[in-house]
Amino acid sequence: MSSRNLKIAVQRSGRLSEATIGLLKKCDIGFDNGHGKLRSRAFNFPLEILFLRDDDIPRYVEDGVADCGVVGENVLAEAESKLPVAEKLGFGQCRLAIAVPRGSGIARASDLDRKRIATSYPRLLSKFLGELGLNVDIHSISGSVEIAPGVGLSDAICDLVSSGSTLFSNGLEEIETIMESEAVLAVRPELPEGVDRLFESLCFRIKAVNEARKNKYILLNAPDNKLAEIERLIPGMKSPTVMPLAKDGWSSIHSVIAEESHWDVVEQLKAAGAEGILVISIDQMVR
Ligand code: PRT
Ligand code: ZN
């Protein structure tokens, strides 16, 4: 048994909070995340959850107050954090981009020389512009970056974009992407003995949940003379399970298929003679 709990830092309230809490719950880790809580102890896994502002998470992990944390790659990069990333988590996707007012005549990064850019990401922006040899006036502001050109503070902005609707509704258009980002699980490089095993168990569960999200379980009935074609469509993890039905000349087939293409496969299965097709979500999957 380990001497103490594993401690994980998560965003208290913001764009990553719901997905992070959802991920831990899908790992069957139960805890109370009641409103305004700053820390919580899981009841069925030796885990303590610290709820923090996302910008503080790299520092808390580096200082060892938390052992690991869920945070955007953009935050780690802006903090110039050297923390290793144990898992990419597949949510919180966005990009850090430079945008300009539509019709400004600024079409590419090289047009930004001697211009003013407002951003909450001054380090990443200045590194990007420095590599291009551009001389730009960076205004570091902490929020509402998208209104800066409209109020005359800057000629361009550098901010996170996901759907693009914020840019659009502020009359802005993207001209350059500086980095792509998603939420990751960052970890302290040297975990104490015992805590390292807890962290491995947590990663094992997270991997199983993420793998499950990308796949579906499929069951169907098929006439035996169509089995070969149907097995080719759903090869599964090793091979599909084929079991005879009580009705002569028919079999039941079980397999796993990729979530992203499952509708196409279901159509092909139907066309190939399959019947009674059931598609079921998987909670956890270990290859
Ligand atoms: O309070 P705290 O400091 O914890 O939160 P925060 O306000 O600093 O961060 P928050 O909750 O806004 O974002 C947390 C993390 O979510 C970011 O660090 C990114 O890793 C990730 N993420 C993903 C985003 C977005 N998508 C995103 N679209 N973070 C911010 N935005 C903002 C963007 O700044 C802009 O204002 O959403 C707007 C653009 O969105 P679209 O959809 O209109 O393009
Ligand atoms: Zn923040």
Topology:
Blueprint (H helix, E strand, L loop, with lengths): L5 E6 L5 H10 L12 E3 L5 E6 L4 H6 L5 E5 H6 L6 E4 L5 E8 L14 E4 L2 H10 L5 E4 L15 E6 L3 H5 L2 E10 L1 E5 L7 H19 L1 E9 L3 H7 L7 E4 L5 E9 L3 H10 L3 E7 L6
Parallel strand pairs: 1-3, 1-4, 7-8, 7-9
Antiparallel strand pairs: 2-3, 4-11, 5-11, 6-9, 6-10, 12-14, 12-15, 13-14
The structure holds phosphoribosyl ATP and zinc ion (ZN).
Features:
287 residues; alpha/beta; D-Maltodextrin-Binding Protein, domain 2; Alpha-Beta Plaits; 3 domains; six-stranded mixed β-sheet; five-stranded mixed β-sheet; 8 helices; flat; binds phosphoribosyl ATP; binds zinc ion
Small molecules bound in the structure, each named once: phosphoribosyl ATP, zinc ion
Question: How is the main sheet built?
Answer: 6 strands, mixed
Rounded to an integer, what's the Rg over CA atoms?
Answer: 25 Å
Structural class based on helices, strands and sheet pairing? alpha/beta
Please tally the helical runs, counting DSSP H or I stretches of 4 or more residues: 8
Strand order of the largest sheet: 2-3-1-4-11-5
Model regions low in confidence, pLDDT < 50 over at least 5 residues: none
The CATH superfamily of the largest domain bears the name Periplasmic binding protein-like II
CATH class of the largest domain: Alpha Beta
Distance between the termini: 27 Å
Helical proportion?
A: 25-40%
In round numbers, the mean pLDDT is 95
